[in-house]
Amino acid sequence: MPEARTPADIEADIVRRRHDLAAALDEIAVRVHPKTIIGDAKAKAAATVDRTAGRAYVAANRAVTDMRATFVAEDGAPRLERVVPVALITVAVVGGFFALSARRRRR
After folding, report:
1. DSSP string of 72-86?
2. Is pTM beyond 0.90 here?
3. How far apart are alpha carbons 66 and 72 in whole angstroms?
4. Is there a contact between 70 and 64 (Cβ–Cβ < 8 Å)?
5. Is position 6 within any domain?
6. Which residue range is the domain that position 98 belongs to?
7. Distance between alpha carbon 99 and the CA centroid of its chain, in Å?
8. Is 107 a domain residue?
């Protein structure tokens, strides 16, 4: 059979529960305060931007590494069989732009 509680025990229990309830209400008030909500939203947005920027950096770094591997051998020497055709195509395209530009100026 459970022990009978004294009035002092009951009063101490009530005081403790009031204190716990006050702490819970204070926590709820802080959580629903507009500044807290705005701060949480800003932090979440910043984390999303950081994560997205990190992913973009990794993707760009991977693309640069892959492109470099296409034109440079593992020992650091250029792969001429790939560099020369790209250089010739680049010269032809730039030359074509200059030719078209000069042609338009003459008109």
Report:
1. B-TTS-B-HHHHHHH
2. no
3. 10
4. no
5. no
6. 79-107
7. 45
8. yes
